[in-house]
Amino acid sequence: MIFIPLTITILGFFRPVDMAYRGRTTVADTHEALLTSLLGSYEKRVVPQINDTHPVDLSLGIRLLGLIDLFEHEEIMETFMYLDQMWYDYRLEWDPSKNQRVHVIHIPVDDLWRPDMTVYNNADVDMVSMNTLAIVFSNGQVYYAPKTRIRSRCDMDLTKFPFDTQQCVIKLGSFTFSGQVVNLTLLPVNMTFTDEYMSHKEWSLEEVTSELSITTYACCPEKYQHALFKFRFKRNTVYYMQVFLLPGVILALLVPFQFLLPPDSKERLTLGSCLLLGCILMITLIQSYLPDAHPTLPYLVQYYGVTLIWVSISIICTIGVVNTQSRGRRTRKVPELVKKIFLKTLKKLVCLGDDAYYPLEESEAVSLRSLEKQSVVTHADSPRNAEETKMERDMDEILRHVTTLVMRTAVTDSHCDAHAQWYQVAMVLDRVMCIFFTAIFVIYTCAILG
Prior knowledge:
The chain is of the alpha+beta class. The protein has eight helices and twelve strands. The longest helix has 60 residues, at 390-449.
């Protein structure tokens, strides 16, 4: 019962309005009559061409709403935009003075003829468009601007990745009508539709240009027109500098530092192996951003490749240094030429001091076997008296053992001296290679990333 007064109130509110316009011609009635007269015998499958010498003028333009993404691996650009189209259809003209001064009407575009606009470099079979109304003016001009999502092919040049600028093209045109039927013209390009433009975090829009191209196909003598809309995007590099560039420089910088470890350190090869695995991991990670079988390699990938080579060479050099410092354990004497080059010349040049003491400079390495022979000879040559006492024999035995101990100490000292000399040679080698690898690091870093 409560709803009955409310219903009566609502009916009472609208009833005077209905009664006020009863018997009069409303705007809706005018539009209905106008649509009936325009579309009553309208055939949307027929091109609104007056004659063979006057093609339908189609003005084409875009208003970019935003870049969805640039897919580097697939080389695809995905965008949202308004695709502005304007053409003249003489069958849709009317006299506004005879139709209550109605100058504009909105008609579903499916009821009208419209050009078969196609994205020639589309990555999908069809482009996705919002089916909106077309605006028809009394002079026969039709304006149609659907909101469109386009996935188009984009040939990317990633040589300067991540400091790259990409230029992508959207190629639009009629798929079946030549320039003799539909004549393309370009509307002024709007870089962005500022009220609805969606900025992209990775790419910033630098420029949008448009131009017309004419193509003649082998199958047909007619000339086909295409509108080329070119977009230039610049990559924001902050993320990539932290993820790819900075780790690459640090990995390359650590290569010469492994030669500052002691020559007998077991962590030298461990550090080199970790650097090698780090370079391989980063190259694999960057590969996920690159197109398959891309004709050119980015400078950053080349940088990682050079670093990978130098890490491998540094591991080989490290093995050589470890082998050099271990030669002293095999009681091999340092050759005079090596001693002159490394211990008397390079040692001072690489700031390892000027040590003038070289223990085996004038003596040969001694072996236990030679000392034992010497001990036996000494013992045999010592005069023996037939009447020596037991104490004398004991003293001789003690002297013989003392001599043996002295000889053994001399052998051990000679081995340590040989090992120390080879160790110094290894240290000089390490310092030379550290300087050499540092210079190479600076050179190829400036040459590739500079």
